[in-house]
C-alpha cells in the first residue's frame, strides 16, 4: 500500500465556541463538544507531523480559545519550529493575549471574521458583541506587520454593506479579505431562512467581487461562488494530480483525532486517528473517492454553463449522491 505525506495540517481543536452564529455550519456553541483530543495527543500529532517533514499548522475550531490549554499548544508548535496560522472569532482577545500571540516567532497569520458593517449588525448574526474586538485585533497585528485574513460572511440584507466593510478593512495593508454570501445553511437546528442570499443574486455578488479584485490586487480573495470559467480553470488544474482536488486541500484533524479529507464538513472522507499515524494511504477506498470527486466536478462543470454555483456545497451534494 502506498502512503503520501503532506506539509500542511489543518486541525480543529474543538467544536465548542463562545459565539453562537446564526449561520454556523457546525452548529457550534459553548455547550458543544466532540470528544476533544488531550494536550498530549495533540502534541503527539504535531511531533509526528514535524518528523514526517510537515511545515505549517492551521488551528481552528469551533473557537480555539475555549480550550484552557491553547497557549500550551502554541508553545509546543513554537518549540518544534512549526509555522502556524490561528483562527479566532476574536471575542476572547484581550491585550494580554494579543501581545502573547504576537511574540511567537512562528505565528504567521491571524484568521478572524466580520458578519456586518456595524457592531449591531455583526452581533445580530454572531449573538455576541465581538465586532470591536475583531477590528482591534486586525489593527493590533497590522501594526506589528503580522498578516490577517478576514472572512466577511454576509446575510442577504447585508450585501449592500460590502463597500462600507471594504473601507474599514482595506486601510490595513497586511489584511486579506474574503467576501462570502450566506448562500446555504449548515447543520444548525434553528435558523432564519431570511439570512440566505437567493440564487438570483449570485451573479451580481460574484462579479462585484471580481471587480474589487481588479481594483485591489492581492487584497481580495476569491469567494465561494464560481462561474463556468472559474470551474473550468479549477478542473484543468486537477488533471495531472494523483489526488485530484484533494491535492489543493488540507488534511484535516477533527477534535476527536479523526483524519479526513472532505468536500465539505457534511461528507468527510476519514481513514484513521491523527495521533497514531499521519500518513495518507492511497488504497482502493481513496481511489474510489477520487473517482467520485472527478465525476462530481465534471457534472458541476456542465451545470455551471447555465448558472453560478456555490461550489463547495454543490460538490458535497454531488459526491453524496454517488
Give a concise summary.
The protein has 322 residues and is an alpha/beta fold. The protein has a single domain, classed as TIM Barrel (Alpha-Beta Barrel), CATH 3.20.20.
Helical fraction: 25-40%
- SSE order: EEHEHEHEHHEHEHEHEEEEHEH
Radius of gyration using CA atoms only: 19 Å
> What is the helix tally?
10
Please name the CATH architecture: Alpha-Beta Barrel
Could you state the CATH homologous superfamily?
Answer: Aldolase class I
Shape: globular
Biggest sheet details: 9 strands, mixed
Mean pLDDT: 90
Q: How many discrete structural domains?
A: 1
Total strands: the figure is 13
Tell me the structural class: alpha/beta
Strand content: 15-25%
Low-pLDDT runs:
none
Output the CATH class name: Alpha Beta
| Span between termini | 25 Å
Describe the fold and architecture:
With 322 residues, this protein is an alpha/beta fold. It has one domain: TIM Barrel (Alpha-Beta Barrel), CATH 3.20.20. It has helices at 39-51, 70-79, 95-102, 119-126, 131-143, 162-170, 202-215, 228-238, 284-303, 311-321, and strands spanning 2-4, 8-12, 56-60, 83-87, 107-114, 147-154, 175-181, 225-226, 251-253, 258-262, 268-273, 280-282, 309-310. The protein has a nine-stranded mixed β-sheet with strand order 7-6-5-4-3-2-9-10-11. Strand 10 and strand 11 (268-273) form a beta hairpin. Helix 1 packs parallel to helix 2, helix 8 (228-238) runs antiparallel to helix 9 and helix 9 (284-303) crosses helix 10 (311-321). The longest helix has 20 residues, at 284-303. The model has no long low-confidence stretch (mean pLDDT 90).
Amino acid at each position: 500500500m502506498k502512503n503520501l505525506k503532506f506539509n500542511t495540517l489543518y486541525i480543529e481543536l474543538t467544536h465548542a465556541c463562545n459565539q453562537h452564529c446564526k449561520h454556523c455550519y457546525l452548529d457550534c456553541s459553548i455547550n458543544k463538544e466532540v470528544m476533544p483530543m488531550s494536550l498530549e495527543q495533540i502534541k503527539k500529532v504535531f511531533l509526528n507531523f514535524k518528523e514526517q517533514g510537515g511545515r505549517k499548522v492551521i488551528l481552528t475550531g469551533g473557537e480555539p480559545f475555549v480550550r484552557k490549554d491553547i497557549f500550551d499548544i502554541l508553545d509546543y508548535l513554537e518549540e518544534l519550529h512549526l509555522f502556524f496560522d490561528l483562527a479566532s472569532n476574536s471575542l476572547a482577545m484581550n491585550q494580554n493575549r494579543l501581545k502573547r500571540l504576537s511574540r511567537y516567532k512562528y505565528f504567521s497569520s491571524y484568521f478572524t471574521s466580520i458578519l456586518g458593517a456595524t457592531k449591531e449588525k455583526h452581533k445580530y448574526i454572531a449573538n455576541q458583541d465581538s465586532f470591536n474586538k475583531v477590528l482591534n485585533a486586525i489593527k493590533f497585528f497590522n501594526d506589528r506587520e503580522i498578516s490577517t485574513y478576514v472572512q466577511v460572511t454576509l446575510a442577504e440584507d447585508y450585501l449592500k454593506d460590502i463597500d462600507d466593510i471594504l473601507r474599514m478593512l482595506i486601510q490595513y495593508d497586511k489584511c486579506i479579505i474574503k467576501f462570502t454570501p450566506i448562500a446555504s445553511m449548515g447543520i444548525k437546528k434553528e435558523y432564519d431562512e431570511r439570512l440566505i442570499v437567493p440564487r438570483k443574486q449570485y451573479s451580481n455578488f460574484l462579479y462585484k467581487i471580481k471587480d474589487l479584485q481588479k481594483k485591489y490586487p492581492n487584497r481580495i480573495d476569491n469567494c465561494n461562488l464560481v462561474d463556468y470559467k472559474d470551474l473550468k480553470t479549477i478542473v484543468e488544474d486537477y488533471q495531472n494530480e494523483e489526488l485530484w482536488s484533494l491535492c489543493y486541500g488540507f488534511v484535516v484533524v477533527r477534535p476527536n483525532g479523526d483524519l479526513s479529507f472532505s468536500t465539505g464538513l457534511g461528507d468527510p472522507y476519514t481513514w484513521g486517528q491523527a495521533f497514531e499515524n499521519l500518513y495518507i494511504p492511497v488504497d482502493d477506498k481513496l481511489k474510489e473517492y477520487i473517482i467520485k470527486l472527478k465525476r462530481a466536478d465534471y457534472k458541476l462543470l456542465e451545470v455551471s454553463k447555465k448558472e453560478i454555483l456555490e461550489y463547495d456545497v454543490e460538490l458535497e451534494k454531488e459526491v453524496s449522491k454517488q
